[in-house]
Amino acid sequence: MTADAASASVAESDGAALAAPSDRGPRRNRSAYLRYGAGKLGGAAVSLLAVLVTSFFLFRLIPGDPVKTMTGGRQVSAEQLAAYRREFGLDLPLWQQFTDYCGKALTGDLGTSYQFRAPVIDKITEALPNTLVLTGTAFVLYTVLGVYLGTRAAWRNGGPGDRLNTGLALVLYSIPSFWLGLLLIIVFSVGVGPIPGLFPTGGMESGGETGFAYVLDVAHHLVLPVVTLVAVEYGQTLLVTRSALLDEMGSDYLTTARAKGLRDDLVRRRHAVPNAMLPTMTLIFVNLGRTVAGVILVETVFSWPGLGGLFYQALSVPDLPLVQGLFFVFAAAVIVMNTLADLLYPLLDPRVGR
């Protein structure tokens, strides 16, 4: 072998050795992400199974006989009560009720409501849009408000605006939502002193309206419950965003960005805020899952015909299939959204999942 050929061979081997890590790097990152994602999805599946089991046994601790409650206090013979129990499978052993419930739930059948005599999934589907209108509107408003005010408060840490925003957020976040809702009804629906009753006391619509007038009517009913949710929930988003951004503000890369001559506003928007968004993203996705669950107390106070009000109504019977189905849907929504947030983390920060 000549010297030139040997040199070429060495160069090729060196080039291959140098190229190998760069070729393996993307594959290694993909495999690491797949392992990370599989672990998160497996954890979500286990959590859903635990919720399924918990939803069955938890609500059977509620005192009272649902069959007697369904009769509305009327005099019913023992034969009629036994027929009701056979109809809903309540005469079966508990273990058999549990296996039947799990088997049906895995196929999407959440049972039949005792009080409505309708499939549970139909009642959930019927009430879900009403909940999404209320909690979805509130979610958008308090998320935007909390993130914006949280970043402004952290960037001007210790200033008058920071103290005012943080103090107001802490006060509102500590107020029970049902108490604030009742207070708003007294002041702005019933009217106090010179303040007239401007908004309805409850419900979703007045009835008889169509077209654009119906949209305005729903928006009119929406004001007070949305204000209640935004006032209580925006504080948590503000505080989490502020805390995460304060942790980033002493980082060296921000000092470097300022040294390069970037404006303070650009340093905040392009560098500090994106790196501080992981905790806020978790909170946003958890809150997004809660929009499906609704807010039971707020919907009950304002008589809003959503999933929260339906859950309260079912719990008072108790309508076990409907309570179990709603509980499973509420928990599943939060678990799914939390899992999505976990799967997005490596895209926002490549260090996650390695």
Q: Find the structural class using helix and strand composition.
A: mainly alpha
Shape: flat
Low-confidence stretches: 5-23
Query: Helical element count?
Result: 14
Q: What is the CA-atom radius of gyration, in angstroms?
A: 28 Å
Biggest pleated sheet = none
- C-alpha end-to-end distance: 45 Å
How large is the share of residues in beta strands?
A: under 5%
Helix content: over 70%
| Average predicted local confidence, pLDDT | 79
Secondary-structure element order, as H and E? HHHHHHHHHHHHHH
Say how many strands there are: 0
Characteristic key phrases:
mainly alpha, 14 helices, 354 residues
Question: How would you describe this structure to a colleague?
Answer:
The structure is a single chain. Helix 5 packs antiparallel against helix 6. Mean pLDDT is 79; it is low at 5-23. The two termini are 45 Å apart. The chain is flat. It is built from 14 helices and no strands. Helices cover 75% and strands 0% of the residues. By secondary structure, it is mainly alpha-helical.
Would you kindly provide a brief summary of this structure?
The protein is mostly helical and 354 residues long.
Spell out the blueprint of helices and strands:
Elements: H1 3-58, H2 66-70, H3 78-87, H4 94-105, H5 120-155, H6 160-173, H7 177-191, H8 211-248, H9 252-259, H10 264-275, H11 277-293, H12 296-301, H13 307-315, H14 320-348
Helix pairs in contact: 1-4, 1-14, 5-6, 5-8, 5-11, 5-14, 6-8, 7-8, 8-11, 9-10, 11-14, 13-14
